[in-house]
Amino acid sequence: HGTSQINDQGRLEIGGVDTKKLTEEFGTPLFVYDEALIRQRCREYVDAFRASGFQFQVAYASKAFCVKAMCRIVAEEGMSLDVVSDGELYTALEAGFPAERIHFHGNNKTPEEIEMAIDAKIGCFVVDNFSELPVLNSIAAEKRQNVNVLLRITPGVEAHTHEFISTGQTDSKFGFDLGNGSAYKAVEEASKLSSLTILGVHSHIGSQIFEVEGFRMAAERVADFAVQVRSELQVTFKVINLGGGFGIRYVEGHTPLPVAVYVKAITDAVRENFSSNDYPLPAIWVEPGRSIVGDAGTTLYTVGTTKDIPGVRKYVAVDGGMTDNPRPALYDSEYEAVLANRATEPAEEVVSIAGKCCESGDMLIWDLSLPKVENGDILAVSCTGAYNYAMASNYNRIRRPAVVFVKDGHADLIVKRESYKDIIGNDVIPERMKQAN
Ligand code: LLP
Predict the structure, then answer these.
(1) Which pLDDT value is given to residue 2?
(2) CATH for the stretch 35-291
(3) Contact 395, 305 (CB under 8 A)
(4) Which of 25, 84, 240, 284 gives 106 a disulfide partner, CB atoms 3.0 to 4.6 angstroms apart?
C-alpha cells in the first residue's frame, strides 16, 4: 500500500527507498513512515469535509504519534491538533504548531498544564468533568483570558471495534454522561462561568471502528441534546466534535471504510438531525489519530535467533518487541509482516515472531508464513505507525528505535535512536553511595 513496492532486487522499498539501505544507514529496529501516505490520509479528511460544505476542523489526535516533524506535517496540511498532556503540547509548540489550532483533552489536566495551555493561547479546551470546570475558569480569570471550551459528553454509544452496543448509562472515566443529566448540568454550570465560552460539545465513541452506525447514533444523540439545551438553556452549540476512532486494516479480515465514507456519514447525520430541528448548522470537528498515521508506518527488525520445537512451533526472535510495539501484548493486536530483503520469495515455513524482552508475553506475531528465515534477514511489520512509537518504553533498558520519514527516494531522520547516555540520563547516584565505593 502507499508507496511501498518490491524493487528489482526483490526487496521491499518504501517511499522509493530500499529497506535494506535504510537498515544499513539507520540500524534496526527502525520505524519508517511513508510521508506521502500520511499526507494523503490528511487530505482525504480535509477534502471530504470541504466537499460537505460544512465548516470543519480535522484535528490529528497526536497521541497516536507525536513528534515534532509530525506536528509540522499536520500544520502544513492545514489541520488542527489534539493534545492530551503537557508533553504533547510542548512538542507541538516547539514544532511551531499554530496554538490557536490546538485542542487540549484529558480527564485530569493539572493546573500546571492548564496554565501552560492558556499562556500559549491554545484554541480550545475539551472539558471532561465537573472538577475541571471551576479550576479552568479561575485560572483563566486570573490570567484575564477567556477560553473556548467543548464539553465532552458520553453519548451512551459504546463502540467495540466491529460491533457497537448502546448503553443507557455509560460506565466511563471520560466525559459528562448524557443519560443521567450530567451533560445538561455541565452546560448549565459552564454557561455561568464568566471566563469560559462554550463552543459546543465533544463525543468520542471508541477506536478502530469499522462501521458508520456508531457515529450516526452519536450525531443523533448530540443533536437531540443540542436542541434541548438551546430551547431550555439558551445555549447554542457552534461546534460538534465527533472524536476519532476510524479504523484501519492491520490484517486480512479488517474492513475499514474509505475516509470519505466515514466523513459523509457524519456530515449527513449532522445535517439531517440539526436541520430537521431548525438548528443553525454547527461546524463539525473530528479527531482521527490511527487512520492518519497507522498504515503509513512500518517497523524494520533484524532477525536474530530461532528456536525450533519440532512438532510444536518455531520461534524467530527479532531485535525489538514489546518495547517498540506493546500492542500485541496489551490488546492481542494482530500484524502482518514480510521478509523485506527477500520479498518475492514464496512462503516456506510458518513461524512465530518473538521480541527480545525477558517476558513470554513479548510476542509480535503468531503463525506467520515466511520464506525460510535466516539470521540477518530483515523483517518488515506493517501498519505500525499509530500507538507504537508513541507507546514505546525502555523496559529491559532497551533503547527506543530511530524514526525516519521516506519520500521520493529520500530518507530523513526525524527521531534519533536513543543512546546509552539517554538511557541513564536521568539516573542519579546519591552521594552516600558514591562514598561507599
Ligand atoms: N479523540 C479522543 C478523545 C480519543 O480518546 C482518541 C483515542 C482519539 C480521538 C483518536 O482515536 P483514533 O482515531 O486514533 O482511533 N492505544 C490504543 C488506542 C487508544 C485510543 C485512545 N483514544 C491502541 O493502540 O489501539
Answers:
(1) 85
(2) 3.20.20.10
(3) no
(4) 84
Whether 318 lines ligand 1, by a CB cut-off of 6 Å, is no
Q: Which residue has the cell 459552564?
A: 190
Give distance in angstroms: CA of 386 to centre of ligand 1. Answer: 9
Instruction: Give the distance (Å) from ligand 1 centre to CA of residue 428.
Output: 35
**What is the rounded distance in angstroms from the CA atom of residue 90 to the CA atom of residue 245?**
24
3-class DSSP state of 24: helix
Mark whether 71 is an active-site residue: no
- Rounded to an integer, the average pLDDT of 47-68 is 98
Determine whether the shortest distance from the Cβ of 243 to ligand 1 is under 6 A: yes
Q: Is ipTM beyond 0.85? A: yes
Render 417-432 in DSSP notation, one character per residue.
PPPHHHHHTT----HH
**CATH architecture type of domain 5-34+294-424:** Beta Barrel (2.40)
Locate the ligand 1 atom nearest the alpha carbon of residue 64 and give its number.
14
Confirm or reject: Cβ of 287 under 6 Å from ligand 1. yes
Neighbours of 101 (CB within 10 A): 18
Distance between Cα 234 and ligand 1 center (Å): 33
Considering the candidates 42, 71, 357, 358, report the single residue annotated as catalytic: 358
Give the domain ranges of the chain. Answer: 5-34+294-424, 35-291
| pLDDT tens-digit readout, 324-372 | 999 999 999 999 999 999 999 999 999 999 999 999 999 999 999 999 9
Say if residue 359 carries a ligand binding annotation: yes
> Does the beta carbon of 57 sit less than 6 angstroms from any atom of ligand 1?
no
Closest CA relative to residue 59, chosen from 92, 82, 86: 82
**Residue count of the chain:** 437
